[in-house]
Amino acid sequence: MKALKIILYIVLALAGLWVLLGLFAKKNYHIERNTEIDAPHEIVFEQVKFFKNFKNWSPWHVYDPNMKTEITGTDGEAGAVYAWSGNDKVGTGTQTLKSVTPGRLDYEVNFSEWGTSPAYFILEERGKKTAVTWAMDMYVPFPWNAFAMLTDVNAFVGKDFENGLANLKKVCEQIAHPKYRGYEVVEADIPVKYYLSVRNMVDTAAIPKYFGENLPKIMGWAANKNLAFSGGPSGLFWNWGAQTDMAAAIPVAENIKLDSTQTFPIGGKALVIEYFGPYDKTGEAHFAMDDYMAEKKLRSIPPVIEEYVTDPIAEPDTMKWLTKIIYFVEPKPDSTAIQ
Q: What pTM, to 2 d.p., does this model score?
């Protein structure tokens, strides 16, 4: 009996200590994380503004893929409510969109057991990128605030914020920079360059030899005339086949013709792929251009340019050789493609 009393006193003392901890422990924690996303503001804003997109990047959907959700009100407008109910890891609660501006979105998050905490996103345009801040002033009620004293709340909850921002970054950058066969196609307006060239019909198997024989000649002729180069050694291709209509070329600063050469002024609306690898493996990048043009209803304006940026003598690793593949394009007839 005496032992039971001692145990009871210990339990009561611990309970009293726990109550005292809860009475004096802090109840408010500021959680804040930041990232920069290589995507325009409107793409990031679209993902954050609409609750329907929450599943694309929410860190908590991983904890319970079968979590039940419901959106009420007009999604994306103040007053819209996102409700969730899931397993023990996600619990139940609601998130209400309180205000929306292009630079800031404010929410009221209600955890069924813990009450309400304000949260917000701040979006800042940085050129073509977007800086994102995700924060919450988290309220931890009694007696849970006593437990909170025994852990690093900022690190524990902040990890979910970090994961969510990483997911958001991935989703937005995939939208902003879609890949075609693993390559990103970039639209560009390229100023006119003058390509000093030697053009011929060449057996496809003999293309490397053709470059090897003619590029040094062109560079020598240009050097003798003190012509400044405006880019790297290039191949110009009008078509491919058993024989390829092509030119070995160097872009120069002046529109000039030398003996045995032609000069082609080339520029305008273009598509560019940066390809890394050996020269004889560029085929998949060209197929990626075909896919992009088919999707965007564009057609190529010959010649196609391969600009060989990396000096293969200075860099022996072929996987580090950069070739810029450039297609000048125009809308297909009767299409409303890029103008």
A: 0.72
